[in-house]
Amino acid sequence: MERKISLAHGSGGKLARDLIEEVLLPRLHNETLERLADAADLHLNGSRVLFTTDSFVVKPIEFPGGDIGKLAVCGTINDLAVSGGRPLWISCGLIIEEGFSLECLERIVESLARAAADGGVSVVCGDTKVVERGGADGLFINTAGIGIPIDDFTPGNIQPGDKVLVSGTIGDHEAAVFRAREDLGRKMDLDSDCAPLGGLVATMIPAAPSIRVMRDPTRGGLGAVLNELIERTGRSISIEEDAIPIKREVLGICDLVGFDPLYLASEGRLVCIAPAGEAQTLLAAMRAHPLGADAALIGEVTADPHERVYLRTPFGGSRIVSMPTGVQLPRIC
Amino acid sequence: MERKISLAHGSGGKLARDLIEEVLLPRLHNETLERLADAADLHLNGSRVLFTTDSFVVKPIEFPGGDIGKLAVCGTINDLAVSGGRPLWISCGLIIEEGFSLECLERIVESLARAAADGGVSVVCGDTKVVERGGADGLFINTAGIGIPIDDFTPGNIQPGDKVLVSGTIGDHEAAVFRAREDLGRKMDLDSDCAPLGGLVATMIPAAPSIRVMRDPTRGGLGAVLNELIERTGRSISIEEDAIPIKREVLGICDLVGFDPLYLASEGRLVCIAPAGEAQTLLAAMRAHPLGADAALIGEVTADPHERVYLRTPFGGSRIVSMPTGVQLPRIC
Predict the structure, then answer these.
(1) What does the DSSP assignment read for A213-251?
(2) What is the mean pLDDT of residues A2-24?
(3) By percentage, how much of chain A surpasses pLDDT 70?
(4) Does B324 or B66 have the greater pLDDT score?
(5) Rounded-to-integer distance, Cα B15 and Cα B6, Å
(6) pLDDT > 80? residue A215
(7) B92, A53: Cβ pair inside 8 Å?
(8) Domains contained in chain A, CATH given
(9) pLDDT score of A185
């Protein structure tokens, strides 16, 4: 039987990971890639450079709180920011379907340019390809980004008692895209959280000099990211269900269609592990920033050596939050 | 009437240029982008960095002499090389259609990895997106690349008498893709020229210290590239039809379907302008390199201030080679 690519290969979950580890890494093997970081950490004439890329295929391309242009810039800025970097330059590759509205393209480029300005980056190179009608679905955008490190996080220092923080409500982006796609047909006050996180990260670093690690919970959501963060540490993470900030509207959509909010993508949030002694100062610094107003301390690292993520419910129960295996909603970014 | 994107917006010709100048540049305005170079020339902590990107949508994804993986690496390496750079690192963003053969993907990644090794670059970061069946046509690849400058070409010094050289036969790539797509149904010995040019450029630089400028004649072919090179110089270019190396098989396809070989894309060739005094040494150096074996001196810069490209025929006639306006064959890269 011929093996084929499935939608789950493009999720943030297990099959996506398998694709990377079984198809890509064995062929492209090099140390930088094998680190599976959000950004490659490179050395150039004595300077360090961070380099990352992401493609965007979100559907619909315009949604409440953003569009594919804003998303493409924020996604790449955020990968650099959570790697401890200051984002500097962005490339932009467009793949456009023949017949695509030029006015819509103008709006998207406008939005992309505004996000770049907000995020403090310049779009310095680009490329445009057009495919015939039916060859692609409207517009896809790839961005790659270059930044310089402003801090080195120390995931190797993760230890029991370290605190887990999140910078705001989770899942807004995926829920907003779902809402736009399904045309839920009623008024709902829910926008994507899509935003550039460079500024927030820059205020967090001086507040907590010993930050262990950061990630942005995009595909696969908080559940996938916490599982990735605890990998190879010999520790576990325990989070409190009622400490996790989630909007009522997001919970409503989850109830309606059976999504688990822990696996819903955000595009303007970050998750961070910091030593207990720095956690309160860090939380205060995050809350003082407009993009961290709803920041919360949601749990901690434990000595349990199984590298699992446990969710403790308000009723005293506990369940394992595993790495997602399928895909809740394709094409959310 | 709603304005729409057409296939010609993705060509190397006039509409593609209009899209850049009317939609992209006014919104993303910055000096680096406005230079419209093959690679952005950036300054980082006192070091210079070259940065470029290209997306690839070639159809079919496997063709004689290459595939989309090899092409994606060579295209980005070549943009860095003809900018006078040494390519170092490549990013790789995959957009895959649901149902795509995993075995085919493995072949493509294998080929991409081989091209990277041949071209002396490492693939250091990547991203995979999957879209539902019908949402994309098989596989698209974006690569971005980082390099460091090893020479500064001096297009500002272009002057009458300078020689125009090409590193090999032109149009092999587009003709080979056409052949694969149309399934011409007979044996033909014609492969794409797709190859990484970093090594060739590195041998040319010491041979001709005053090289004015280089470009790789991809979309729009030799015709588009010569028109771009002569822009804003106040000079013109005159090339000799019978000096241009073209394979018999490529001419055969052109005769068959009415293509103009001057507008056919190559993916492993470069065009170069150098002072007359260095031209012969440069030509010898190019011919001594495997990827320059068929290099030829095809014309020269003239004092004509109209910034035109003239083609002189063996019969003494002359015609203007204008910037292509349409698109001969979509999705050749």
Answers:
(1) EEE---TTHHHHHHHHHHTTTT-EEEEEGGGS---HHHH
(2) 90
(3) 99
(4) B66
(5) 9
(6) yes
(7) yes
(8) 38-149 (3.30.1330.10), 163-320 (3.90.650.10)
(9) 57
Task: Specify the pTM.
Answer: 0.96
Contact (CB<8Å) A28/B116: yes
Lowest model confidence (mean pLDDT) among A32-41, A206-215, B130-139, B209-218 = A32-41
Q: Is the pLDDT of residue B151 over 90?
A: yes
Chain A residue whose CA is closest to B1: A101
pLDDT at position A113, please? Answer: 97
Residue B261: strand pairing partners: none
CA of A268, closest CA in chain B: separation in Å? Answer: 19
User: What distance in Å separates residue A104's CA from the closest CA in chain B?
Assistant: 9
Give the pLDDT of residue A186.
64
Q: Distance between CA atoms of A179 and B118, rounded to whole angstroms? A: 47
Phi/psi for B126 (5° steps) reads -165, 175
Chain A residues within an 8 Å CB radius of B142: 53, 55, 93, 127, 142, 144
Alpha-carbon span B139 to B62, nearest angstrom:
11
Contact B142 A89 (CB under 8 A): no
**Looking at CA atoms only, how far is residue B129 from chain A in angstroms?**
5
Confidence of residue B278 (pLDDT cuts 50, 70, 90): very high
Closest CA to B91 of B73, B66, B67: B73
- Helices A198-207/A276-287 angle, 10° precision: 140
pLDDT tens readout for residues A165-199? 999 999 999 999 999 988 765 667 899 999 999 99
User: So what's the ipTM on this one?
Assistant: 0.96
| A226 CA: distance to closest CA in chain B (Å) | 19
Q: By the 8 A CB rule, do B192 and B172 touch?
A: yes
The overall longest dimension of chain A from CA atoms, in Å, is: 57
Q: Which one of A56, A130, A137, A141 would you mutate to disrupt binding with B, by most B Cβ within 10 Å of its Cβ?
A: A130
